[in-house]
Design brief:
Length: 64
């Protein structure tokens, strides 16, 4: 009797662990994608800042 109960509890615990691992895996994938988007946005922003600086220099040259 006790062995059956222990086996049942063990299976339940394993099932819960699998659910937790699956949930964590999904969260890690979402975090990876969010970080990737953030890095892409930062790269675009830096490129725009460089372009802005270049355009400012070009305008100063045209005024001179």
């Amino acid at each position: 009797m006790q062995l059956k109960e222990i086996t049942k509890k063990r299976r339940e615990t394993q099932d819960e662990n699998l659910k937790v691992v699956s949930y964590m895996d999904k969260l890690e994938k979402r975090m990876y994608e969010a970080n990737k988007r953030s890095l892409d946005t930062l790269k675009q922003m830096r490129e725009m800042e460089l372009e802005n600086t270049t355009l400012k220099s070009y305008i100063i040259e045209l005024k001179a």
